[in-house]
Design goal:
By secondary structure, the chain is an alpha+beta fold. The protein is built from nine helices and 15 strands. Helices cover 24% and strands 27% of the residues. It is rod-shaped and about 110 Å long.
């Protein structure tokens, strides 16, 4: 069991005022708005948990006696609260007894940002501005004005719940429900902070720097601990999740770690062979087109694809070759082409039927992993 007194740096006989002052001092140093480091945030959550227990007289007494649960239960016979606790479980009282804390954990937040293919490949930094709940600087999250403190609820006398008799098949049963006057807190704020109206937090716009790692793709989420919504009563903030949306590139198509690009070459270039410049994310690279290259051929350029997430490895650039057939020929070009076909023994109307392991079928199968 954690040493809650040690976490707050106080003696076991510390008063409620000393506990409150100790927590407020530590919270200022560890709060996510001051220090977003994940390790510091874990410390902040531990300190907040310690304050939640020690600031509540009933929970503190149970803690000092070596208890670990803060709501009772059925373990160890009727141990925690006896027969009335079991009745509460059946008739609406529930297992949680005593006032609930005003300080609560904040909610997580989600925001989406667009990155282009170049930023997704090499990583980038982005300043994003968003509106979220932050600690009220006027009351430092306490919700009260003029350094005042909440006063005991006159209805439930600080218990956070009211009891009444309910008839059942077992007879009359005493049940407990959250106090309507104080909403179960056990105290009421008679002089609320004018800035946050007693909530301990306000909504404000803030700018956050986001580091986008190399290799991200659409749907990836970057978790930023303690950068979400601050909880009620100045409670610890939730986490901020930044979801990546990758914008479509003009001519490069992503497939995992690989990139695909389509180029068009002439019949002469495909027949005789040539070297072409192909644009990549790293700038133009030279690609050799071997003599006799067919339309639909795929050429691989190593290491010119996308960076693999959490790695320095990069995929490949797959170049798809399309051999362009001229649609119009001059008389001289047509004559030369017919002489060329004749020299190869080609006759008009000749066709070759290809099997499944040749031509388009095999290329289709290779392209889609079938």
């Amino acid at each position: 069991m954690a040493d809650y007194y040690g976490l707050l740096g106080i003696d076991r006989g510390a008063s409620q005022d000393e506990i409150k002052k100790a927590y407020r001092k530590i919270a200022r140093e560890l709060h996510p708005d001051v220090n977003p480091d994940p390790e510091v945030q874990n410390k902040f959550k531990e300190v907040t948990a310690a304050y939640d227990v020690l600031s509540d007289p009933q929970k503190r007494q149970q803690y000092d006696m070596g208890g670990q649960g803060f709501g009772g239960g059925f373990g160890g016979g009727f141990g925690g609260g006896g027969f009335s606790d079991i009745m509460d479980a059946f008739f609406g009282g529930g297992g949680n007894r005593g006032p609930r804390p005003r300080m609560r954990q904040g909610q997580d937040a989600l925001i989406r940002i667009e990155v282009d293919l170049n930023e997704a490949c090499f990583g980038t930094e982005r300043d994003i501005t968003l509106e979220s709940a932050v600690v009220c600087t006027k009351c430092e999250g306490q919700g009260t004005a003029n350094n005042s403190a909440p006063s005991m609820c006159p209805v439930c006398k600080g218990r956070g719940e009211t009891q009444f008799v309910q008839k059942s098949f077992l007879g009359q049963v005493m049940t407990s429900r959250p106090c309507n006057n104080c909403s179960g807190y056990g105290s009421v704020i008679t002089d609320p902070c004018r800035e946050c109206a007693g909530d301990g937090r306000v909504r404000a716009r803030q700018t956050i720097n986001v580091k986008v790692p190399a290799g991200v793709e659409t749907g990836n989420r970057i978790q930023m601990a303690g950068r979400g919504e601050v909880g009620a009563g100045g409670g610890p903030a939730g986490d901020l999740y930044v979801e990546i949306v990758e914008k479509e590139h003009e001519f490069l198509l992503r497939d995992g770690d690989n990139l695909h690009v389509a180029i068009e070459v002439s019949i002469a270039a495909a027949s005789l062979g040539t070297t072409v410049n192909v644009e990549t994310l790293d700038g133009p690279v030279k690609v050799d087109i071997k003599a006799g290259t067919q339309s639909g051929a795929m050429l691989s350029v190593k290491g010119k694809g996308m960076t693999r997430l959490r790695s320095t490895h990069r995929g490949d650039l797959i170049v798809h070759v399309d051999v362009a057939t001229p649609q119009k020929l001059s008389r001289d070009q047509e004559k030369l082409l017919k002489e060329f076909a004749k020299s190869r023994g080609e006759r008009d109307g000749d066709v070759k039927i290809k099997g499944h392991r040749e031509g388009l079928f095999s290329k289709f199968r290779d392209a889609f992993g079938r």
